[in-house]
Specification:
This protein is α/β, with parallel strands linked by helices. It has three domains: 109 residues, 3-Layer(bba) Sandwich (Glucose Oxidase, domain 1); 103 residues, Orthogonal Bundle (Enzyme I, Chain A, domain 2), CATH 1.10.274; 317 residues, Phosphoenolpyruvate-binding domains (TIM Barrel), CATH 3.20.20. The protein has 21 helices and 17 strands. Strands 9, 10, 11, 12, 13, 14, 15, 16 and 17 form a nine-stranded mixed sheet that branches. β11, α10 and β12 form a beta-alpha-beta unit.
Length: 569
């Protein structure tokens, strides 16, 4: 028996035989000795072949929207004449076809790498995947991969979007990789499919062979290879528990979540695109606690029109007519900028011009969003939320923009309802000054992802310091408690922490009464809330505030669940 540890990228349990996929990196020096004309022909042929392969994958069916979006992005790159002409130019200048492709792709990748943002890292992965496809199509390394035909746990150095799209999803029990990140596109696609996935398992290819029995724990990031009989039995029991618990979900559809002692906790959904909106409606979330608008802006060459914004906001409002829908204004910065917003490169974009800071520098952009919300707010359930607030005056200035919108709409004789205006608490300054911020805010929503990152001074996307990033650290819990105590307004949580089983009793105990989670976690969150006693949660929260480490906090909650015999997924 061997126990390996990585990072959980997609939750769930799996038990099955290992199937190793040899990831073939782009190799060079095969076509370098051919003449210039041959090299150009090889390049054009590789483009045509790659386009055909991508087209066949898209047309094969059974792909998720994310998979199709990635393949469409790669196809757009192949059709980008400016980018392709640069490669041709390198070839004509004697660089050699494979080196020309690598050089051009790596130049683009390096530009994106400087930002160090999760969003752009996702595109880096897609570009690397496409670069490998092109070069392998030149070097005749494009033989079909040996893919599983029966149910297996996939083991590989890395799974690229192209490989994932090529595998029959019905046979994937789970995925384990040596490289890759928890926010990669493949991790997102695995979550969409409900496929457990663990990444960052060092040296796994030297420790697992085809046919080995693997137990994959996608909640704790553990991989057990050839477990002892008792261990295997224990995991099979847990797998059955998960199946049984999942069957309970249906009874929470459309119900309100109450703790054992009758405290109501509202469970809403986080939405990042129109598919999420549909998913949130399907699980009957109690409104939208976070409607991200970034997807409307980032993957296009021109800013979305007022009509584009209004269409989305009206759809959201109508989908949840009796519940609130909180629209977060555009939350971008130097790490992820669309081409139509000019901003000089910043040494540290995470501490630079981003969120509401950027919006106040582009007031018309902010005004357009608020105006679209006001006009779409016919049912009176739309609200506006400001991201990355760190100073009182940022809220004051934003309220002035809201007042300007109101005056303009009156002059235009348009029907509208002025939305409430709240803020995200995701900076230490906003958390410590929650009492002051309350004076000019209608509501608070704690963005625990960034709040944790800033409190612990640890970039969650940086593998060298990501071990420090933990939203159950006592310092983060103390900050949440401080916000709840100081706030004169309703406080919710919309970060990943809101759906974490180990965090939910603590949030309830700290006084949070509204949780906004990703749509697939709505029913699981409601079910867990129904098993927790609020008074006991309060005691746990008080105990956690005096602890020294996140591990101590986690152990406290695990022991509570064991004592109360509370099962969760």
């Amino acid at each position: 028996m061997i126990k390996l540890v990585g990072k959980p990228a997609s939750p769930g349990y799996a038990i099955g035989q290992a199937f190793l996929i040899s990831y073939q990196e782009a190799e060079s020096a095969v076509a370098e000795k051919t003449d210039l004309e041959t090299q150009l022909k090889l390049f054009e042929s590789a483009i045509s072949t790659s386009k055909r392969q991508i087209k066949e994958l898209i047309e094969s069916g059974n792909l998720s929207k994310t998979e199709i979006d990635i393949l469409n992005f790669q196809n757009e790159v192949l059709n980008d004449e400016v980018f392709i002409d640069k490669i041709r130019s390198y070839i004509k200048n004697g660089m050699g076809v494979e080196n020309a492709i690598k050089t051009s792709f790596n130049e683009s990748i390096d530009e994106l790498s400087e930002a160090k943002s999760e969003y752009l890292k996702e595109r880096i992965e897609d570009l690397q995947d496409l670069m490998t496809r092109l070069i392998n199509n030149i070097t005749s390394k494009n033989e079909p991969l040996n893919l599983p035909k029966s149910e297996s746990i996939i083991v590989s150095k890395i799974i690229t979007p192209s490989i994932f799209a090529s595998i029959d999803k019905e046979v994937i029990l789970g995925i384990v990789t040596e490289e890759g990140g928890t926010t990669s596109h493949v991790a997102i696609m695995a979550k969409e499919r409900g496929i457990p996935m663990i990444v960052g398992v060092s040296g796994i290819l030297n420790k697992i062979k085809n046919g080995d029995i693997i137990v994959l724990d996608g909640y704790n990031g553990e991989v057990i290879v050839n477990p002892a009989e008792q261990q295997l039995l224990a995991y099979k029991t847990r797998l059955e528990e998960v199946r049984v618990i999942s069957q309970e979900f249906e009874k929470y559809l459309g119900t309100k979540a109450y703790t054992v002692d009758g405290t109501y906790i509202k469970v809403q959904a986080n939405v990042g695109n129109e598919d999420d909106l549909t998913s949130a409606a399907n699980v009957k979330a109690e409104g939208i606690g976070l409607l991200r608008t970034e997807f409307l802006y980032l993957e296009r060459t021109n800013a979305p029109t007022y009509e584009d914004l209004s269409k989305l906001f009206k759809k959201a409002s109508e989908s949840f007519a009796s519940d609130e829908v909180i629209v977060r204004v555009l939350d971008i910065g130097g790490d992820k900028l669309p081409p139509y917003i000019n901003l000089e490169p910043e040494a540290n974009p995470f501490l630079g011009l981003r969120g509401i800071r950027l919006m106040l520098k582009n007031r018309e952009l902010l005004k357009e969003q608020i105006k679209a919300v006001a006009v779409s707010n016919i049912k009176g359930n739309l609200k506006v939320m400001l991201p990355m607030v760190s100073d009182y005056d940022e809220i004051v200035e934003s309220k002035k923009v809201l007042e300007e919108v109101e005056e303009e709409l009156k002059k235009e004789n348009k029907q509208f309802i002025v939305p409430e205006l709240g803020i995200m608490i995701e900076t230490p300054s906003a958390a410590s000054m929650a009492d002051v911020m309350s004076e000019v805010s209608d509501f608070f929503s704690i963005g625990t992802n960034d709040l944790t990152q800033y409190i612990l001074a640890a970039d969650r996307g940086n593998k060298n310091v990501s071990y420090l990033y933990d939203d159950l650290h006592p310092s983060v819990l103390r900050a949440i408690k401080d916000v709840v105590n100081k706030a004169k307004r309703p406080v919710g949580v919309c970060g990943e922490m809101a759906s974490e089983p180990l965090a939910i009793p603590l949030l309830i105990g700290l006084g949070i009464r509204k949780l906004s989670v990703n749509p697939p976690r709505v029913l699981a969150t409601k079910m867990l809330i129904s098993k927790i006693d609020k008074s006991e949660a309060s005691e746990l929260a008080e105990m956690s505030l005096d602890m020294k480490t996140a591990d101590q906090v986690k152990q406290l909650i695990k022991e509570y669940y064991e004592k109360k015999k509370i099962k969760f997924i």
